[in-house]
Amino acid sequence: MEQPTRLPRLSSNGSRLIRKLSELPPVWFTAAALGESVGVSRRTVMRELPGMEKWLAAAGFRLVRSPGQGIRLEEDESRRAALRVLLDGGQTALSRRERIDRLIALLFAEGGPVKTAYLAHQLQISEHTLSGDLDAAAAWLLARGVTLVRRAGVGVWLEGSPENLRRAIGVRLRPQLAQVDWRRFLSDRSAASPLELLDRDDMAAVVGVLQDWERKGRFCFSDSAFLSLVLHITLLAGQMRNQPSPQTAPTRQPGELLAALEQALGIRLPDGEAAYLDHCLQAACGKRDWDDPSEIHLQYLASVLIQGMERETGVELTGFSTLRDDLCAHLRPMLVRIQRGERIENPQLEPMRTQYPALWQAMRRVCDQAGQAASLPEIPDEEACFLAMHFGAVLEECERTRRRLRAVVVCPMGMATSRFLTSQLDREVPEITVERMCPMRGLDTDALRREGIDLIISTVPLQADLPHIVVGAVLQEKDRIQLRGIVEAFRARPDTPPRTQAAPQTDVRYAGALSACIVELLDNLVIQDVPTPRSRRDFIRYAARLFCDTPRGIQSVQAVLLRREGLGDTFLPPLRALLLHGKTDAVPGCRLGYLRPATPLAEAGAVIEGAIVMLAPAGPEPVWQQVMQEVSAILVDRPALLDALRAGDRAHAVRLLETDLSRRFCYELSRPLPPG
């Protein structure tokens, strides 16, 4: 087919929509469905359609629009492939966001004044359009500590600290870098995009060092963490080459990773980068030890978020075992970004606001409350959107679980018939989950009810006090109608309780060790009254004697607690208590205690009403880590436990702790121990 020599201009969104139509089956799509497939709104699709029709008609392709049906590309697969080739070679007009990305990248790369005529030429727009883009770019940059300066007769340039400039351009580049094939980008030197300012040799060197560390098993970065670190180091290296600063004597001994990066790049990175890399590596490590000074703060923040969303949604979320871990995995790097004043772009923010307004508003309120409770700066909308996605996934799973009808199949005609019926149900009525096949003899409806079974599906009539239905072994249309009716009735029930996730299988030896560890912790729980302390060191001195009675043991515990105090503040404002914790061989197992001072200690505006003491052996015993992590979480999640400790009510504290630990480890503790 002969193509015209000159096609009309096509916007970036229009190009993406046409490409998506060429990749999808030749069926009707509504504007909303097509927009959702590429991440734009229905309004955007309707706005782009005239331009798409004009471009396709000029290129010799047929796009059909039908009221009530939608949009359809009337071409076979060979023509669709030709259309994709044409799109790859065609020229498309940049969207405003793409123009601003390119504009900021050009200014960053130049490092000095640039004439507006040059910028307009590079972006292929008028100077009038450029003026509006500069206004938008200036407002965006100013919020990130960078000033866009415009001076008649001189030009346009950026002013700001190297750190702020690097962070700002990193935010603009990161979404684009996430959408390209890295190997192709590193090998293709002709790509025209804002990514041009990234030195491909530097980027390849950084990628090589990080991947080598992963291959050696040092760390396993998430895709997001890997991308962020590659972008950060590549931009930093480019800045240092283009704007060299005076060399000073090193004040630190570079770590192994930092030394490897410096060798690969051929430059010495600033001393401050060692701390940043340390934060990145800690975030990549995932869950930290229970006695890490910052872990309890992280657990507290996750707990506040979970409890807040439970209040907002009315859904119990603590039963979803992975939610807290997933939140903590996101919160670790998020807190580093907030502390450093870094902002990230989240392309899902606008869809979240418009398509899930109730979830978004609830998450935004909870983030504001959590920020105040944990004394954090404001949590940006972009971060709140990521958190909303975590909760949205759990709430969606909770809704699916709540609305899924659990059934057993009763079929006395044999195993083959039962399995055949079960496979039909799985395929034709996915809203029903067949838990198992059940014998008709001795059918125990009370046991099924306790198990949470909602329905018995039988091939023969039954006398049972649990909802049941009789169907053929080969489903007929009347059977399908009955089943759909039961599903609809079940969904309409307002009182269907949510079900939590099933616990994973656990080794019985681990279950025995876990049970013994919990019993030992509860048996040795201590609440002790102490005189009025004059400083935190007094609390530490009393804590060292709580579980040790030998001078050597007391000295060992005191040294551990003092070292932890030096690593970070152990005062938890929400609990109004110190958390004195650490690992030491001076104790034979996990220990929990509470110090009740005669009078609270007033210190620098804080009132310390007591001290929680948590100790565990230094040896590599897996159950100690697991139990102490859960105890930390319970102290945050269960205010009644801390109230009992403050009141000196040991019996009540033991009951509360035993109940919560049993609930959190319910599956492991229910496993039978091996004989003997």
Give the overall silhouette. Answer: flat
Helix content: 55-70%
Global mean pLDDT: 79
User: What is the first-to-last residue Cα distance?
Assistant: 82 Å
Q: Low-confidence spans: pLDDT under 50, at least 5 residues?
A: 1-5, 496-506, 667-676
Structural class: alpha/beta
Strand ordering within the main sheet: 11-14-17-13-12
Largest sheet: 5 strands, mixed
Q: Using only CA atoms, what is the Rg?
A: 31 Å
According to DSSP, the number of beta strands is 17
| Individual helix count | 28
Beta-strand percentage range = 5-15%
If you had to describe this structure to a student in words, what would you say it looks like?
With 676 residues, this protein is an alpha/beta fold. The protein contains 28 helices and 17 strands. Strands 11-14-17-13-12 form a five-stranded mixed beta sheet, with helices on both faces. A four-stranded parallel beta sheet has the order 8-7-9-10. A hairpin with a 4-residue loop joins strand 12 and strand 13.
Any key phrases for this structure?
alpha/beta; flat; disordered N terminus; disordered C terminus
In short:
The protein has 676 residues and is an alpha/beta fold.
